[in-house]
Amino acid sequence: MKEYLEKLPKDLQEILHLIGKLAAEMDMPAYLVGGFVRDLILGVDNFDLDIVIEGDGIAFAEKLGEKFNAKITRHRRFGTATLALAHKLKIDGSPLLTIDLESIRKIDIATARKEIYPHPASLPEVTPGCLEDDAFRRDFTINAMAISISGKNYGKLVDIFNGKADLAHKKIRVLHDLSFVDDPTRILRAIRFEQRFNFRIEPHTLKLLQKSCREKALNSVEPQRLRDELVLVLKEYDPVRQVNRVRKLSGFTFMHPRLTLSDKQLELLKGISREISWFERQYAHRRQLESWLVYLIGMLDVLKLAQVRDFCRRFAFPSGVKKRILSFKDLSPRIIKNLCGKNIKPSQIFQALEPLSYEVLIALKAKYRNICLQKNIQVFFKEFNGLRPHTKGEDLRKLGIEPGPHYKKIFDSLLKARLNGKVKTKEEEIALITKLTKKGS
Ligand code: ATP
């Protein structure tokens, strides 16, 4: 595999050599593992360095952290650590050596380990092990390869389960028959990799997967682990395709017993995909859209408000996410009706849409195909979103208006006048304030 490693960016190659050198010094063999190896062979960029150490992974990470002056986070229970790297890596002990990092920011380091699942879907019991044990705990053959980076074996592929051949034949294959029983989240992972790479889940693995789906194995997984896997599915390049495959293989009762996805709902997701592209063409510079959340909002559309609340509680979504999901569900029919009307005033559009997040606005635009609503949302994005009066508090003070709660009223009036085209410039705003305060309003 040396020739593959030599194609990596130079900074990354230097880091690998330094890791390998330290591993040899500490007599703890080091390997690149997981998705990094898979993507290296596929020729896909992947800068999530995943290293396994035969020995004490945390002690190794600590030494490497000192050498790289990196911030280290330890997870003792699993014998793993993460190093966060600075932009400019100053190598300790070699005052002349600095590496400008362009491609990589963090390194995950793990002790090679053996995992035993005491019960189906439980968290595994972890004990230190060798590289073979570590490969055996992995999900699929294509993710179970390792490349040695220490000593004279630098660049040697360790491929116990023939992952390289499965990569070449585009196959997703589990390592043993109890794989989905031990960890049913692998059902979602199998679908995710299959759809991402346009591979096929090979027939025996598919049978095992379908059996686990029939037994509703996903329902017994801890909700937060399920949530994380679900979010990864929705963050993939083509979430509609992913969701459609999940629909065919497992369905969505693991999310909520009432959650189904009809063809109509799937159309909504396709609409969401189009609207996300629209947003990204026009407004990507404003802020990054959390597109996975828009898809999730679309999927939950069939549920009632109370059911969506249950879903959010059970899966413990962070409050900001929960708020956005519920605000879509909670939109009053009156607001939708107004937005579908021709005669709605700009200030009313602003009032209805400004409090909503971009994720909710995109879901709204995808769901209601009414022409007026489409135009109103477009004009909101183009002209009204984020609009504030030219006048500031300082200007009001200069006009001799004592600060107080009435400031908000003045700003609201100014904004309304501005949106409805009654004032344009700061001078016109000031004239309006003078008029308003004279009236004593
Ligand atoms: P991605 O490209 O999506 O990041 P990845 O393969 O790097 O894919 P991670 O979730 O970062 O995926 O996991 C890293 C590695 O850890 C995987 O390649 C796999 O070997 C192993 N792994 C992760 N989750 C599981 C699991 N549920 N069961 C077994 N092995 C797993």
Give the helix tally. Answer: 22
Task: Give the distinct bound molecules.
Answer: adenosine-5'-triphosphate
Overall outline: globular
Please state the CA-atom Rg, rounded to the nearest Å.
28 Å
Relative helix content: 40-55%
The chain-level structural class is alpha+beta
Number of domains: 3
Quote the beta fraction: 5-15%
Give start-end ranges of low-pLDDT stretches. none
The CATH class name of the largest domain reads Alpha Beta
Euclidean distance between termini CA atoms:
78 Å
**How many distinct beta strands?**
13
- Examine the coordinates and then state which fold CATH places here, giving the name of the CATH topology of the largest domain: Beta Polymerase, domain 2
Looking at this structure, what is the CATH superfamily of the largest domain? Beta Polymerase, domain 2
Summarize model confidence as the mean pLDDT. Answer: 93
User: Quick one: biggest sheet?
Assistant: 7 strands, mixed
Strand arrangement across the biggest beta sheet: 3-4-7-2-1-10-11
